[in-house]
Amino acid sequence: MRERAVSNRREKMEEAKGPVKHVLLAKFKDDVTPEKIDELIKGYANLVNLIEPMKAFHWGKDVSIENLHQGFTHIFESTFESKEAVAEYVAHPIHVEFATMFLGSLDKVLVIDYKPTSV
Q1: Is 74 annotated in the active site?
Q2: Which candidate among 18, 78, 89, 119 keeps its CA 20 to 30 Å from the CA of 46?
Q3: Domain Stress-response A/B barrel: where (predicted)?
Q4: What is the pLDDT of residue 1?
């Protein structure tokens, strides 16, 4: 019994370590111009220079031939050192201000945070 408790604590500690990916899927509102979308993407990308816990940023547009995107057209992925770093980023005043503007331009949004895992 005690061995299992120690093992569970060790697993939880291991789970808490390591990078976390913050993924946002987006569909912009129909009335948002391509120029405005470019401006928003540049603003999102610049957060990595303004908010210390954010370590990396990548984005792209849907190019799948499977047509399973459910209307989502863009993906944004940020990398953080831990779940705590994601929480710090989410609460950061610069992120809060940007997110309010960014989310106001979206018709649909889905956010998932995950820890990359090897099989």
Answers
A1: no
A2: 18
A3: 20-114
A4: 57
